Amino acid sequence: MQAEEPPNTLTIVGTGDERVYYNATTNGRFEAGSAADLVDAEQPDTVSNTSAAGSTAESGVDDFNFTGQLTDLRVRGGPVRVYVNGNRIDPAAVPDTTVSPLNTTAVLTIPAGERQQEAHPQAGLDVSASLALENDRLGGRYQRLLLDERFNDIESPALRQTTVGAAAGVIERGIERLSTRQQSSIAAYNNGSLTAHEFLRDLAVIDERAGQLSLATDRVVARSQSTPGATVGGQSVSSWAQDRDLKLATLQGPVRDQIQEALNGNHTDPVASATPSGASRAVAESGEQRQYPTPLPVYVETSNRGVMLATVVDGEYYRELSLSRQRNATGDGLSDVDAIFNRVAELYPWASAHSRTTGLTGSRQSELSGITIGHSHGELTTFVNLSTGRVVAEHQRKTLGSVPTAEPVNTTKAGVRLSVERTQPTGPLHLSLATPDGEPIDGTVHVDGGPAIRTGTDGERWTVAPDGRATVVARANNETVRVRLPPQPS
């Protein structure tokens, strides 16, 4: 049986009269394309499973097919253009994003070589965490009321300017503390000092405190309106606040919001909570089944200085990733709005081409720019370092019913058919159990050793696909069925 051709293409085009030398690696595998010359060239190209290297002739072209995602790409020599799946990319940006072979938006990734942890923890009702979060909310409200009181007691414009500066300093120091705490939490989780649940709890606390600091920046802006010409560090107060909100946004995310809900006991799963362990089915007076708090499954990846979280809640897929190492990376700066949008279009070609709404946040003095793109599958917000053109953080939301999937991988055993439909690594994963005739089966499914997922009476569920190869195991009607997934959907 002939193996299928890898779904992605890497094309290297020399555009001058000098050779272009390159070396590329992937977390999948490489195969030579039609333009690669492994034998007859003066300097033959080489392919060795996860790597491809060689050089183009003057004004020449080399191409390779590959699975997975590019983890490194280095080019030198003459002028060059590099394309992935027909979309031009900046080699220096690899591995900022991976272009999905499916028709959906690309995603920021943690390179496989930098990944330290990969896990499927759950965030559940945690009374102490819930109290800590509520304490942070009350503390933030108190600080805002205190700022109001101080402003109301001051009539001198000079003293009001001083108060604005002092409040801004408190916020600046708060942002620095949260950034440090996040890096410490990542390090502790990576070295085993924090459990996965404790790590999720820490990220939820950081998210809440960042949100409170964001509200504080808004309050500083509001109170400064009565002080004409008020500034912070030479910026207008509104520009300062906008830039700090961008920094705070990289310490927050849509998955952390869902984790907070779960820690507060507000996450319910009608299927998983249908019959709570050790209790009979509870029915409300109306006859409707009572909803019990259930743990929220979260897929987690970390590197030394980065964290990715993904989950599925109420028909929506949420994903967030922060790579603080990108803040100090090198690259070409973005000097104006057109350059920013061009960079985003380069990194997210599908989302840019299918955008319904686009928003840009950030000032000329900002380190970051936040670009939000609404598209037919959901919404993308990407945070770009303006001095390097690299993405430092990303938030995504997708409606599961609108996300395209690859062809299903099916296995049938003793009347139980397990069907798995994938999108992209760490993307939505559709699971279904049915009889060969299509009748749904209520069973449990484990993805790569993760927690049990119950399909319910309709026989299907969505979850998050792990990165790389995975084994899906289903149990139903006293049978066990397995499906092995390749690293990248074909």
TrEMBL record:
Every DUF7094 domain range: 298-404
Q: Name one Pfam family in it.
A: DUF7094
Q: Where is the DUF7096 domain?
A: 99-267
**This protein's superkingdom?**
Archaea
Region Disordered, annotated ranges: 265-290
Q: Which InterPro entries match?
A: DUF7094 (IPR055520), DUF7096 (IPR055522), Fn3_arc (IPR056397)
All copies of domain Fibronectin-III type-like, residue ranges? 410-482
* UniProt protein name: Uncharacterized protein
The record lists the organism as Halococcus hamelinensis 100A6
